[in-house]
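Example 3.2
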Amino acid sequence: MSVSNPTLITFVIYIAAMVLIGFMAYRSTNNLSDYILGGRSLGSVVTALSAGASDMSGWLLMGLPGAIYMSGLSESWIAIGLIVGAYLNWLFVAGRLRVQTEHNGDALTLPDYFSSRFEDKSGLLRIISAVVILVFFTIYCASGIVAGARLFESTFGMSYETALWAGAAATIAYTFVGGFLAVSWTDTVQATLMIFALLLTPIIVLLATGGIDTTFLAIEAQDPSNFDMLKNTTFIGIISLMGWGLGYFGQPHILARFMAADSVKSIANARRISMTWMILCLGGTVAVGFFGIAYFSANPAVAMPVSENHERVFIELAKILFNPWVAGVLLSAILAAVMSTLSCQLLVCSSALTEDFYKTFLRKSASQVELVWVGRAMVLLVALIAIAMAANPENRVLGLVSYAWAGFGAAFGPVVLISVIWKDMTRNGALAGILVGAITVIVWKHFELLGLYEIIPGFIFASLAIYIVSKLGTPTHGMLQRFAAAEADFRLNK
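Structure, written as tokens:
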């Protein structure tokens, strides 16, 4: 094994700490609401940091720095789009979704919320939205498992197959045991670790390459167009990268954080904390990839692993530039990014299967203890399917993430956004939005039309479908009443 003991020891301590948090959360998990939403008890700091950490998966420390390293600053449009999208999501959706889910049957999951908000007695809305969650989240989970496997493979010299299981095991363990509270508490620790790694690493790379002036000259010498934000881009290309921001409105694992906040009053403070964390993290990520160009062009002898796979730029810089103990902590940040997102996704899939299939259609009278254990079994089931999907070592993290992100952004984004701001939306409008959004993403991706990222047409067509189909019907008196009560509650407490 090509690994120093300090790095291995750091990893083992870190993983043990996460599993320990899982067991602490186990003691606070008494019913399905605790397991799925932590009993709606998250304060502003945990809401903010767990929303951030669950959002920023392995691509934050692997996919994005790799893209910047390969193409320069023109890849940073994606970061700008994400910051704008996340801010608007906090501003328009977070507080309203918190009160709407409470006023609509104290909903625990998105399918649960849709079915109560639109009084869907047929169960069709619940089933279709749960199926969308399972399809796209299993792809998303696979991307997290690929990122974890890459990390274990390059850090410990494992084969890809062994790394696959090693990377997934710890996350499955604490999600299985502790549910939502374990996921949220570990996310808070992981978010802290990620920001530490992403602020420290670019500073050390700068110092190693001789300061800002020398670094920028080296980047320019390698290719002056690295500084060009418009290099090799087209209008459609920039719109596609910025379009990632639309995805926030429909990501169930991020929206679950809003639903779990202890009150609407926590949301404004959570928004400030979360956006500060996000801007610093994305800035650090772009800097790691960008300064890496200078470091590896000045040190070609150590550039081989990065030239073979550019997604390893952060990993290699951490291993080369830091004391093995510090490198272990920094590489744990990648594991943190992977584990935080993967655990949320496993939990959302588990809640869709437990709350929206098992409890609703198979065992209406199931006890809370039974439902929690079914939830745990579903975590294992989804994890095994995702591991099977991730078994191909040719998988690229960013490619898998972009497809799943688009799927959720287009299928759920318009439905969630419009459902919390427009009182006249109807059940058929919601159904049309989910179906049109999901189908557009799949078809657009398959035919690669216009070179445009599939989330953009998916979001636009789904929004139009919701508006047109809703206008053909009318919401019931009960729907209007609950919407008005929730909106009044939101305005009173925000």
